[in-house]
From TrEMBL:
It holds the Pfam family Gln-synt_C-ter. This is Glutamine synthetase. Belongs to the glutamine synthetase family. Residues 178-612 form the GS catalytic domain. SUPFAM superfamilies: Glutamine synthetase/guanido kinase. It comes from Chlorobium luteolum (strain DSM 273 / BCRC 81028 / 2530).
Length: 727
């Protein structure tokens, strides 16, 4: 058995003859169920599966055998090193490679990988942000294997490395990563939902799972342009650049034919992803020129999060190889559509029932309505936390830019569900009568909603038939945080609903009346979060004000939410984050924001001083000498005063704008210098948002104006037109 599989694996990896038969090599680079079954003794395989299912800790005995099987599998596929792959609080991933090689006591070289090495690692934690958490405790951090996400092989150059997905925790067990809180939140929502299901009378469920399907948008531009733009290299977005005459007004890119060169990139990316067991499903052009999307099928939230991080990593690698630069930041080009990451989220039972899918029996429909209303309740109560979860420099430029959902979180349900909820609220529907529940037409919801939601792309949080689509997430962000928040707010809402229903039953109501009454109350209480209209409109801004919905305009405002005792208490109550863990995350995100803006401002200074001002000065020199020549020849050639004046005017406009730019550039120096003199991270962050970023825009306006006046051959920076329209 083993020998046979070895050969198959190797064959698959070394020469995949037919890339079209994806199912024949899907997951070949992962230590998945198939590989485990082949590599592990039957008892160990079964024991491992049981442990994973129950979420228990792996015993050292099992770990030893698993480690051996994993190492053999990895080595047969060319691996020489292993790494604990984890997600520090920077939003990306980290790894430190160790060789399998060790030297025996008698000097014999041998490859070893012990159970202990599999389950626990000790990377140098001091190089990762802790938000101040470990200074008071131990400086050490540990990585621990997350067996629910399969180990995989990563190729880079000629190296193959065994990557073991892990969590990253401190000596005292505090989460130093983004994954641990996500896993905790998945447990919290499961526990609360099991209780609610029991209250509803649903039997036979032992775990409720959270699912995520993550649609990833990105830009691809030619590497030669990228390498000449310090702003793209340093900040991931352009800080300067005049709008091209043809923007995306024509929207002819969307769903248009994918250029061959990009298609080749996509195919290679998908091939790598399939090997890694990532079910890439959809690829298409996006709204802006050079903007595209990739979406895999949905998976359990922790695996989907890992996979989204891997997708970004694989895309970056292949882009490099193909002579492209991959732009993942939310708003790489001002005035051009930005990139987001639609996070499709749902919860379902281990018996295969999607709790957000309207069923075809009255009981299932009631269950659906209860969970749907719980989502409304959770999002309404914690809209500010949800907003906080997706705040970043890049996303601040995108949210509310009339192309992406605004900073106000509302929920879109679609016409049919709106009517159903209204009917329940007004008492027109009595859920107790079987016939009426069926008459609600809930079974049509998925079909109807698909059409509707396609028409309302402006909603940040839209119901799309059997899942919610959180559309405000930024394209560069890891989805661990938004999903962690969604799960936590859901756990709280579900618990509250169960409390209310149970209290009513205790007070003598029969179960159906208790449920119906609770639904009615909650539909009324959460009405303010439902917004069927256009979220890009002024009406939404007005409605937000009237309804008292939070409207947190930028990252510092959004991050303040984490200081609220009430917000902290919900994370603590559900065991997702301790107060200390919350504070550490707040510190890290504030610091990253301030550093990020500082880097942007300094990059802009550099570009103005070393590229833009010198280029314009040179051109001004050209114009100056041409004007002087003209002046001295004007009598001779009989040039009218008026004609001479026009050219003088042109010269003057150029000179005036250049002088203005020079003045603003030195003012920018002062504005940036002041940042360091401020006390406190919030003061600094506010200063970045309120002063530095607006000032950068003011300078940019002049520079962009000049770009349109200067001879192209004098302008060193690649232009928007070149980056976006040349292939
Ligand atoms: P749309 O085009 O309407 O946004 P798609 O059917 O293309 O929807 O799905 C988008 C993403 O949502 C995909 O990743 C898909 O796998 C995922 N998805 C579908 N059903 C669910 C679900 N029940 N829970 C979470 N994600 C889902
Ligand atoms: Mg979508």
């Amino acid at each position: 058995m083993t020998g046979n599989t070895k050969q198959t694996n190797k064959e698959v990896l070394l020469s995949i003859e037919n890339k079209n038969v994806v199912s024949s090599y899907f997951g070949a680079m992962t230590f998945d169920q198939k590989a485990m079954r082949a590599r592990l003794p039957k008892e160990v395989f079964t024991a491992l599966q049981d442990t994973i299912r129950a979420g228990r800790e792996i015993t050292e005995e099992i770990a030893g055998v698993v480690a051996h099987g994993m190492k053999e599998w990895a080595m047969d596929n060319g691996a020489t090193h292993y790494t604990h792959w984890f997600q520090p609080m920077t939003g990306s991933t980290a790894e430190k490679h160790d060789a399998f090689l060790s030297i025996d006591r008698d000097g014999t070289p041998i490859e070893r990988f012990s159970g202990e090495q599999l389950i626990q690692g000790e990377p140098d934690a001091s190089s990762f942000p802790s938000g101040g958490m470990r200074t008071t405790f131990e400086a050490r951090g540990y990585t621990a294997w997350d067996p629910s996400s399969p180990a995989f092989l990563m190729k880079g150059g000629n190296c193959v490395t065994l990557c073991i997905p892990t969590v990253f925790i401190s000596y005292n067990g505090e989460a130093l990563d983004a994954k641990t809180p996500l896993l905790r939140s998945m447990n919290a929502v499961s526990k609360a939902s099991l209780r609610l299901l029991e209250t509803l009378g649903t039997k036979g469920v032992s775990r409720v799972k959270t699912f995520a399907g993550v649609e990833q948008e990105y830009f691809l531009i030619d590497k030669k342009f990228y390498s000449e733009r310090p702003d793209l290299i340093m900040c991931g977005r352009t800080l300067l650049g005049a709008m091209p005459p043809k923007g995306q007004q024509l929207e002819d890119h969307y769903f248009g034919a994918i250029p061959d060169r990009v298609l080749e990139f996509m195919q290679e990316v998908e091939h790598e992803l399939y090997l890694l067991g990532i079910p890439a499903k959809t690829r298409h052009n996006e709204v802006a020129p050079h903007q595209f999307e990739i979406a895999p099928l949905f998976e359990e939230a922790n695996v989907a999060t890992d996979h989204n991080l891997l997708i970004m990593e694989v895309m970056r690698k292949i882009a490099e190889k193909k002579g492209f630069a991959l732009l993942l930041l939310e708003k790489p080009f001002a005035g051009i559509n930005g990139s987001g990451k639609h996070n499709n989220w749902s919860i379902g039972t281990d018996t295969g029932v999607n709790l957000l899918d309207p069923g075809d029996t009255p009981e299932k429909n009631i269950q659906f309505l209860v969970f749907l209303v719980a989502v409304l309740k959770g999002v309404y109560k914690r809209a500010d936390v949800l907003r906080m979860s997706i705040s970043s420099i890049g996303n601040d430029h995108r949210l509310g830019a009339n192309e992406a959902p605004p900073a106000v979180v509302t929920v879109f349900l679609g016409d049919l569900l709106e009517r159903v909820l209204d009917a329940i609220e007004s008492g027109k529907i009595d859920l107790k009568t079987e016939k009426q529940v069926l008459n609600l037409g809930l079974s049509q919801v998925p079909v109807v909603n698909k059409d509707y939601t396609d028409r309302n792309r402006t909603s940040p949080f839209a119901f799309t038939g059997n899942k919610f689509e959180f559309r405000a997430v930024g394209s560069s962000q890891a989805v661990s945080v938004p999903n962690m928040v969604l799960n936590t707010l859901m756990a709280e809402a579900v618990d509250d609903m169960a409390d209310t229903i149970e209290a009513k039953i205790k007070a003598g109501k029969d179960r159906d009346s208790a449920i119906l009454e609770t639904l009615r109350e909650e539909i009324t209480a959460t009405k303010a979060i439902r917004y069927p209209g256009d979220n890009y409109s002024d009406a939404l801004q007005q409605a937000a004000k009237e309804r008292g919905l939070p409207n947190l305009k930028n990252t510092p405002e959004a991050l303040r939410v984490l200081e609220s005792k009430d917000v902290q208490s919900v994370f603590v109550k559900y065991g997702v984050l301790s107060v200390e863990e919350i504070e550490s995350r707040l510190n890290i995100r504030l610091e990253r924001y301030v550093k990020g803006v500082d880097i942007e401002a300094r990059t802009l200074q550099l570009m103005l001083k070393t590229l833009v001002i010198p280029d314009v000065s040179e051109y001004q020199g050209d114009i100056g000498s041409s004007f002087n020549n003209l002046l001295s020849a004007s009598d001779e050639i009989g040039l009218s005063k008026a004609a001479l004046k026009s050219q003088a005017g042109h010269y003057r406009t150029l000179a005036e704008n250049l002088s203005l730019l020079i003045d603003l550039t030195s003012e920018l120096d002062e504005v940036v210098e002041k940042l360091e003199t401020l006390d406190g991270e919030f003061a600094k962050a506010d200063y970045c948002a309120d002063t530095i970023l607006p000032f950068m825009l003011k300078v940019r306006e002049v520079a962009d104006r000049l770009e349109l006046m200067v001879d192209r051959s004098r302008w060193q920076l690649p232009t928007y037109s070149e980056m976006l329209f040349e292939h």
